[in-house]
Amino acid sequence: MIENLLEKYLNADLLKKLGIMLASVAAAILVGSIFVLMSGADPLEAYYYMIFKPFSSVTSLGEVFIYFTPLLLVGLGVCFTFHCKLSNLGGEGQILFGALGMTLIGISPAAKALGPFSLVLGALAGILFGTLYAALAAWFRALFNASEIVITLMLNYIAEQFISYIIFYHLKTGAEPQSARIAFSIPKIFPNSRINYGVIAALILAFVYYIVVYRTKFGYNLRTLGGSRKAAKYGGVSAKRYYFYAMMISGAFCGLAGMMQVAGNTGRLMSGVAADFGFGGIVVALLGNLHPAGVVIAAFFMALVSAGAVTMQVKTGIPTSFASILEALIVLFILLGMALSSRIDNRKKVK
Amino acid sequence: MATREQYLLELQGISKSFKAVKANDNISLKLAKGEILALLGENGAGKSTLMNIIYGIYRPDSGKIFINGRQVKINSPKEAMSFGIGMVHQHFMLIDRFNAIENMILISEDTSLSVLNRKKVRIRLEELKNQYNIDVDLDCPVEQLSISMQQKVEILKLLYRGADILILDEPTAVLLPAEAESLFRIMRNMTSMGKGVIFISHKMDEVLEISDRINVLSLGKVTGEMKTADADKNTLITMMSGEDALHVDAFEKKAPEEDVLMECEGLEAYDERHVKTLNGVSLKVHKGEIIGIAGVEGNGQEELAQILAGTKYASGGTIKTPNMDLSHRSTRRFMAEKIGYIPSDRNTTGTVSDFSLLQNWLLRKKEVTGKDGLLDTKRMRAECIEGMKIFDVRAKDENTRSSTLSGGNLQKFILAREIGNAPRILVCSYPTRGLDVKAARYVHNCLIEAKNNGTGIIVISSDLEELFAISDRIAVLHRGKVIGEKKPEETTAKEIVYMMMGGNA
């Protein structure tokens, strides 16, 4: 068995953290019912369609995984920044650029000849685009000490408008503002479900994340920087450099998520391809407590809610945006729970 | 003999202990109207504790406080203010983005921010400015004011609140000489209006210049009380150093060797408030030598430690080892050159408090990965357990969170880690601060052993007993300069204290 460093430390607090997570989800579901009642539906029925119905068939479960892959990738990506106490709210923009990278490869004349290899090239292009776009934010932070929260958030709007411009003026093929279909998509695992091999890649990356963050000097330095900037300096870790690394890796993951969206879901570049996964991924990272297993579970839960929301809308008339309300409530309760528990700790210390 | 009513403030037999340490031991003092009382004493003499008692932050274990002859109990700073006690802390309590007027509104009783209110505050402040001759811009945000101006805003704040007893905690530490003069004038103006001022300082010249009476504190006790007119430097220094009490441990020390391990010249640096704290420090560290750096705190020690250890760049000057010029090189380079560092702040610099001891063990280790490029946890764990055993770190095991360790144990842990790296040079900043006698002695033994094995050690400390016990040489830092060097066997504590106060050797 792999021995590991953080596990032991986490164990001390694991129960408490797990408690906060579960309580937050429960509280969000409870408060969410008020919104369901307000729209005149039965909460039990709504939650049934949202959370339990997706398990009823391979086809509907496959839909969950269409959400799961990008959520997991973005979730893992933002974990890197959270580990050094940086925030990447620019997932949306990085996803869009990743999607653009894949699309450019996928619609190029050479793509047909390349076959599956075009996916590898597309993934590399997506990662590169996402990384570079995130590097821009890191650069502002490192050079001018600008708040990366504001910068990454604002870069989303630039990306959105830029992609809009591209699909309206350069990649538009038919009447719709969207690119042509890419030549080769990620193959499906089962014939009657949309679940594809992208899921496997994302799960492998969750393992890679674990190794990098908890088992390498790089990950150790990153976490030291998050634990105490002064200690990191003392240990010879350059904060600037590591902020750059974290932001760029984060962008790489988001870029790959964008590539997966195009190559595994939409098949083409269109507006809305990022589908709020940039923000959903932040919820996933927090809910999963930055732990690889936690992030996988959180991504699945969030995917379930998002996919289930579609069924719920059809059956009960509650709009799918209810899923966003639920997401937001979960984050609020997690933050509340963390604040409360640290306050309780402090009170104990005073005594 | 004056009657009790004539004193603004009187303390009788104040004692306060923190665990085993007696910070204040049966202290009595009196402050009359229109008087400047200087409190003179070294770091750790108990000045801050005493002031915090007067200001209602601590409650005394025993003793009485009288204000205008009436016995009172002060339970909070708010109550202290209601008794007319005001304090200017070393770190100012101002909102940076607010101007002086807004800072006053913040503390005033009424809370609404109406136009009228502002006007009222301004009129009152202008009055106070004229009355006490305090020249400060009321409309400029505090962050844009110089340190000395910010201090004046703090003083205005106290006057605005109607304080009669003003406590100034080392007010000149951050000021230039000319600025100090202007502060003294303001203090004189205040006393001429019948207010009482307690002036805390360890700068003897200033104390002799400005105060009316002097109380000397040493190791929690009042060791001297006199009129300034009757005082001279010599008596004061004897009172401050309390030389009779100096207990020096004897260690078996090898003589230092000739080889120079590190040489720095003309080091200059600014602290985070952009005050120049190092003003051309030159030092040579020899093999197997312990250099003690004595000085009143805030004379550039922290910056010097960081520069020598490579975690801060000097704004001027050079650092060299026989191998290379280390000026403007990275912390990693310093670590590669085997320069160890025991920072004064154990909890957030020396360790990451959320990490386990094992994780913290990796912080300053160069080779932490195995052949596969991953962290070699197995080897690190073994090293960590070994180090903890050798240095007698008392913890449940290596997975214990470092924040749960006592100061002494954590310091031993950091020592184990740094000395485990076999450093050529070890920079220690206040290595025994906050430790009990036993732990401190343990640390001293470790340092002596490292020295006898050839490490060149720099110990920055304000504890003279420590410096006399372990140093081969004591260099005195004053206003960012080394103003003299002495061998401990050829000098006395009195002489070192005299130099610390800026006297020439």
Would you give an account of this structure?
The complex is a heterodimer of chains A (351) and B (505). Chain A has 14 helices and no strands. With 351 residues, chain A is an all-alpha fold. Chain A has a single domain, classed as ABC transporter involved in vitamin B12 uptake, BtuC (Orthogonal Bundle), CATH 1.10.3470. In chain A, helix 3 packs across helix 13, helix 4 packs across helix 12 and helix 12 crosses helix 13. The N terminus of chain A is likely disordered. Chain B has 505 residues and is of the alpha/beta class. Chain B folds into 2 domains: 242 residues, Rossmann fold, CATH 3.40.50.300; 241 residues, P-loop containing nucleotide triphosphate hydrolases (Rossmann fold, 3-Layer(aba) Sandwich). The longest helix of chain B is centred in the first third of the chain and has 18 residues. Chain B is globular and about 75 Å long. The model of chain B has no long low-confidence stretch (mean pLDDT 87). The interface between A and B is medium-sized, with 23 and 33 residues.
Secondary-structure map:
The complex is a heterodimer of chains A (351) and B (505).
Chain A: H1 5-38, H2 43-52, H3 58-83, H4 91-106, H5 110-114, H6 117-144, H7 148-169, H8 198-215, H9 217-227, H10 229-234, H11 239-266, H12 277-287, H13 292-316, H14 322-350
Helix pairs in contact in A: 1-14, 2-13, 3-8, 3-11, 3-12, 3-13, 4-6, 4-7, 4-11, 4-12, 6-7, 6-11, 8-9, 8-13, 12-13, 12-14, 13-14
Chain B: E1 7-18, E2 21-32, E3 36-40, H1 47-54, E4 62-67, E5 70-72, H2 77-82, E6 85-88, H3 100-107, H4 115-132, H5 147-160, E7 165-169, H6 177-192, E8 196-201, H7 204-210, E9 213-218, E10 221-227, H8 233-241, E11 260-270, E12 276-286, E13 290-294, H9 301-309, E14 316-320, H10 331-336, E15 339-342, H11 346-350, H12 357-361, H13 377-390, H14 407-420, E16 425-429, H15 437-452, E17 456-460, H16 464-470, E18 473-478, E19 481-486, H17 493-500
Parallel strand pairs in B: 3-8, 3-9, 6-7, 7-8, 13-17, 13-18, 15-16, 16-17
Antiparallel strand pairs in B: 1-2, 1-4, 4-5, 9-10, 11-12, 11-14, 18-19
Helix pairs in contact in B: 3-4, 8-17, 13-14, 14-15
